[in-house]
Amino acid sequence: MKANSLSTSVSLETAQTVYDPNCQRCPRLAGFLKEVKAKHPSYFCKPVPPFGDNHAGLLVLGLAPGLHGANATGRPFTGDACSDLLYGSLHHHGFGSELRSLTADDDLVMHNCRITNAVKCLPPQNKPTPAEVRNCLTYLRQEVFQLKPKVILCLGAIAHNAALRVLPLVQLGLRPTQLTFGHAARHRVGAIWLVDSYHPSRYNLNTGRITEAMFLQAVGLAKSLLDEQVKEA
Q1: Which of 37, 179, 196, 212 has its CB surrounded by the most CB atoms within 10 Å?
Q2: pTM for this model (two decimals)
Q3: Domain-located, residue 12
Q4: Band of the pLDDT at 81, cuts 50, 70, 90?
Q5: Helix axes 212-232, 83-92, angle to 10 degrees
Q6: What distance in Å separates the CA atoms of residue 120 and residue 71, rounded to the nearest whole number?
Q7: What's the pLDDT at 230?
Q8: How far apart are the first and last CA of the chain?
Q9: Cα gap 206→165, rounded to integer Å
């Protein structure tokens, strides 16, 4: 299979959408959103749509919305404890017009970058079940199919594994065990580079698992690989 042929490598779910605001595939998540909405009536409390450039070369893939962040605002990583680090790093490398993402209707514009989550709904304790991750793969698969990104920046192991499950590993003669998650690791999957980063969560920052410099480095690696892809095209 040719490296630049993604259109034949992803399940042809052309009738599907990348986002369904009324999705009820996961009863536990749907019920939890109702509970949170009752406590916080002003919160978004729906599946959170992707945000950014619809023709982006870089797709940033997170885990799931945070309770008082994306679940409240309706934009990925907006209002989260790690919001400033993510958007600040993207701005530093030229992907965002502003240093911060404040609200879903602010003036922030993403350039050649789109941000999404492996799981679109807020999970209890920020921990989706394997079945819930599987249920959301249809949306991610279709998003990758439509966007055809050149680089996917995976924030955490769950995002990494979700990306592997929607990419054509079998057709390319690859196995997941060959593509091990690790901070600043990079893997070529056909036409796409996967770049891994530890999730820039407040917990990971507080425990030293990741630093601001480490995350900026991972975004920079994604940028350099994207630039290389553009030169090769």
Answers
A1: 196
A2: 0.92
A3: no
A4: confident
A5: 40
A6: 9
A7: 75
A8: 18
A9: 30
